[in-house]
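Hi team, as promised in this morning's meeting, here are the two structures we talked about. I've kept the exact order from the run log so nobody has to guess. The first one is mostly here for context; it's the second one we should focus on when we meet again. Sequence first, then the predicted structure tokens.
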Amino acid sequence: MKNLLQLANSLDIYQNLIYYTTMSEVGRITNTNQYGEPIMNCNDLIELVYQGYDINKVKVNDDRVEKYNTIVEDLALDWPTIKKLTDIDININDYDRALQSDWYMPESYKNMDIEKYIRNLASETNEKQRVEQELILYKKYSILDVLRFLVYLIDTMKEHNIVWGVGRGSSVSSYVLYLLGVHKVDSIKYGLDVTDFLKDK
């Protein structure tokens, strides 16, 4: 706790705003900038540090960041350094594409052959046909990484005995998501059309 108080004092933390780019590790989001980066009250930074989260992607909108990082380096403190928020010289569409290529998950999940993984989950002929139909759409919309992340997310929740819901909205029409365990609604059994979820334009 002493280290946390020192951290707060060195940055005058109550006056700062931080941007944290990993949505799964933020506290409460009060606002976002034009790039969709969450703007958070700096008390949340202290909370993240206190809970042991990796804050390497934190960016602080304060000129005293360099002073704080210098203190950490000079005193050889076992504290994370913090990046200073700077203007992003890139258009929003390019920025969005860049973020989509940098998912916050272990390399083993990033590099997994997700199509093969999903195909192996289907056993009956009609299941395999449905999987192929859906994979075409997932590839069309360039969201195979979403499926990789969902495998990681579900594995993590299972590991920590976290319970999630039965399913919600049009996503339950995806048989692929059913096979991955995202929801528990068998879209083949109930005759749900995947294009209710992934529009086949």
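And here is the second protein, the one for discussion:
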Amino acid sequence: MSSVGQRDGVGWTEQRRSLHALLAERMQLLADYYESALYFLHTPDAPARMSHLAHAVRELCNHMPDAVNVARMDRSNTESKLPILTKAWEKAGLPDDVGEVPGCSTSGSATDECHIPRPVLVAAADLVLSTRIRGSNRRRAALMIVDPHAPDGQSTAERHSTVDRWVKIVDRLFPWVHAFDKRPQAIPEDQLADDFNFLEDVMRGVLAPLDVVADLDDLLAQTQQRVLDTDGPGGSAAVPHVSVDVEAPAERAGDDA
């Protein structure tokens, strides 16, 4: 068996060495987590194997958006929007008491409507959006995988089937990070391998040079089509592994070197 630090043992392929190099170019710690995940994936007898594997995969997936410069929607994003709303409110000459806003009903009903200037509404909606997506790994995954050029993180791609599977894989492994508290269910080895291959396919597409980035588009299209083909009466929305070949078209990610 190979050990962490040896990229020529069990589980390593030319594709995986290439992906490791791409990760290292962006962020060395991500490459280290990838290497660790591969080691535990192929070392089922390692002590606390699933906890180590789950931790490595979670960190790898949650921080992949950082490597491709997806904006981190943290508290500072929300706080920066508040002064903008305040300025728009004051510029419109709106009073502090909502009951004094022109055209606002005073009945106190939850269905009452108030008419406010559009710039104030735009600033308020921007504040709500920044609050809603703060810390959302699903939203950041959507921006990374499907919609990297979405303005101000306003993506509608969260429910895309590829994003959905990416997030579900992370969520399925998460309980193993805190196995004592979560009491996770066992994950079959074939599912672990299939899930990991899928994550690798997406990462290759995200990190690949521009001349091969179309492979990610192929992955998205294949994933969506397979969901459509299997969804329906008696069907399943589970998505089989699909391969994105970036460096070595003849080699599968799961083959031994």
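Starting points for discussion:
Residues 75-132 form one domain.
The longest helix spans residues 49-67.
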